[in-house]
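Message: I would value a second opinion on how I read folds in token form. Give me a protein, with the fold worked out from its sequence. Write it directly below this note and I will take it from there.
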Amino acid sequence: KLLQVLPLLRSGAASQHAVSDEELALACGSHRGEPGHLETVANWLRRLDLNGTSLRCAAEVPEGLPAETAPSRLAHNCSGKHTGWLTLARHLGAPVERYLDSEGPVQRLVLDTLAQACGVRLSADRVVIDGCSAPAPCLTMTELARGTATLLAVDAGAAERRVLNTMERHPWFVGGTGRFDTRLIEHTEGRTLSKVGADGVHVALLRDQGLAVAVKATDGSSRASEAGLTHLLVELDGLAPEAAAELCDQTVRDDEGQPVGNVVVRPLSSRTA
């Protein structure tokens, strides 16, 4: 999402439609669907003369609310990203109902931006459909880290700097109450930024070191990806050990909440058959 949002900024769409830093943080993030998230997305859509029905992500029940609560497209964790693309469609004069078309002007800009940043050629067989119904590139962890690192390059433009500064200043809009990404950004006062992905993918940017890292838990679990990412951040001086212990509880508990084990991060070379 940190790369998918760049066309919104580079094209002038964000300026034309007065996209705020809070709205941009939502477009970069995966929010919990808390009231402040929903209100921000709804107000943004209203300025575009659109509403929640214009979004092509699925309707979801906000986290922490009863299952019988009415699902809403605004509550989908990707609604900010989708609203950013609708803003880009408005700016380009493209049909808003086709903003997810992989061959349309919006997604062509997005996919070309990703391909250039990650140093890949995105042939048709390397573009699939994400869980939020959007076109998504198939990338290796090296390609993903390389692309994310372009945000930190010394010659990065104003769009890249605004993405990083926005995440630093508005971490709650990147995730939400209790979310790993929000807490990490707050712990490091924005010196280290992170963004969760689907199925155990996570990226982080160490701004002081000029480094980006990407991890993938092969079982798709956030427990493994967060533990692995936290370990790497400590090794790379992007996170203090005491902060890591508070940020990522690696205790395994039974159904009554009693500790029964711990998640341990070991280098591959130390594993035994």
The radius of gyration is 19 Å.
